[in-house]
Design brief:
Blueprint: H1 2-16, H2 36-50, H3 67-79
Helix pairs in contact: 1-2, 1-3
């Protein structure tokens, strides 16, 4: 599941970020690929795609800065369902 989840996250991110060499641990915000609007799109994508709710306390840039960070958030939230 983890590989499929990361693959789906990567697919979504790369539909907006035109860098096929983006590594899973690279910070998309520091690289200038993402902004606050994209962050909200990520939140909505995660909630819809993985059928989880992202509570206010998890709405931190650190949870959405990389593919690995997003995957870790999804795993943590799915484990609490």
């Amino acid at each position: 599941m983890a590989d499929a989840m990361k693959s789906r996250i990567r697919e979504f991110v790369l539909s907006y970020v035109k860098d096929d060499e983006l590594e899973d641990d690279e910070n998309m915000f520091e690289l200038g690929y993402a902004n606050s609007l994209f962050a909200m799109q990520l939140v909505l994508f995660v909630e819809k795609e993985f059928a989880i709710s992202v509570p206010r306390e998890d709405l931190k840039l650190s949870n959405f800065q990389s593919i690995n960070a997003i995957a870790a958030l999804v795993e943590a939230r799915a484990g609490q369902a």
